[in-house]
Amino acid sequence: MKDLSNVIFITDMDGTLLPANKQLNQKDLDAIYDFRKFGGRFTVATGRTVQSSSQYFDALQLDEPMIVLNGGAIYDCKEKKYVWQNFVDLSAYEAVKDILEKFPKVGAEIDLSDEILVPQYSIQEEYHIDISYKDIVPRSADIKDISPKGWCKVLFAADSDEIDKLTEYTKNNGWDDLTFVRSSKYFYEILPNGCSKGTALKKMLELYRSYGYTVAACGDFNNDIEMLQNADIPIAPANALDEVKKIACMVTKADCDNGAVSEALYYVMNVL
């Protein structure tokens, strides 16, 4: 019997494991089961919070550490606790205040360890809340009333043109202690400085002493690039951005709506 006990497969969620309707594909679940049957370790790396990801824990039977908040934290699903966490620099407060004043059409949410605060709404932010949070209700709060401490991540949500403008605006404003990343056409984020899924992957392997493991990673967007660069087997779904596909050693024929992760898993099982 094939032994994959020294293999870790880590996948992005939205746009990779999760299709447009946000319902897990049975083909992917079956492939995850087969991968684990041979001893493989399966986990996820997502921009989502733990609260937003938790609705999928049972179906995925996650018992490995996972990367959340686009690399801002590592959460142990078995122990049900954060094992490593980083926080956004306090300078984010003034940056967010400035952005909300200059971009009234941009929604925003501030993710804390145990609460989601929304200082400004947009259609895209309301949709994001609707599909992301099942067991927690984000709380509306004026930015003036929010403490600048303990921010895990800031998410901006708007139409793609508005996010394009916001991305350009943040390039030359001297916010050197903040990391900005585009996580979809409609989302732009502030992360702790230097944080990414790639740096969190390195930290996770270090924390769990996973030396000598073969790491396969699958992702579709800009926020997945560093993770793929740090993987032994980088894979992109058919719907991935071109710049992501260039990094991948394998691009699936299926997109996220049709079992891309399943195809990626069977590829890994066949080549190892």
Q: How would you portray this structure in words?
A:
With 272 residues, the chain is of the alpha/beta class. It folds into two domains: 7-85 and 196-271, 3-Layer(aba) Sandwich (Rossmann fold); 92-192, Hypothetical Protein, Haloacid Dehalogenase-like Hydrolase, Chain: A, domain 2, CATH 3.30.1240.10. It has helices at residues 26-37, 50-53, 57-60, 92-102, 123-132, 160-169, 197-207, 225-229, 242-245, 260-271; strands at residues 7-11, 41-44, 65-68, 73-76, 81-85, 107-111, 116-120, 139-140, 153-157, 178-182, 187-192, 214-218, 233-236, 250-251. A six-stranded mixed β-sheet has the order 8-7-6-9-11-10. A five-stranded parallel β-sheet has the order 2-1-12-13-14. Strands 3-4-5 form a three-stranded antiparallel β-sheet, covered by helices on one side. The radius of gyration is 18 Å and the shape is globular. The mean pLDDT is 95.
Quick recap of the structure?
With about 270 residues, the protein is of the alpha/beta class.
- Total DSSP E strands: 14
Q: State the separation between the terminal residues, measured CA to CA.
A: 13 Å
CATH architecture descriptor of the largest domain: 3-Layer(aba) Sandwich
Return the string of H and E elements: EHEHHEEEHEEHEEHEEHEHEHEH
> Approximately how much beta-strand content do the residues carry?
15-25%
**How is the CATH topology of the largest domain named?**
Rossmann fold
Main beta sheet: strand number and arrangement?
6 strands, mixed
**CATH superfamily membership of the largest domain:** HAD superfamily/HAD-like
Overall, the morphology is globular
Average pLDDT, to the nearest integer?
Answer: 95
SS-based structural class?
A: alpha/beta
Question: Under the CATH scheme, which class of the largest domain?
Answer: Alpha Beta
**Lateral arrangement of strands in the main beta sheet:** 8-7-6-9-11-10
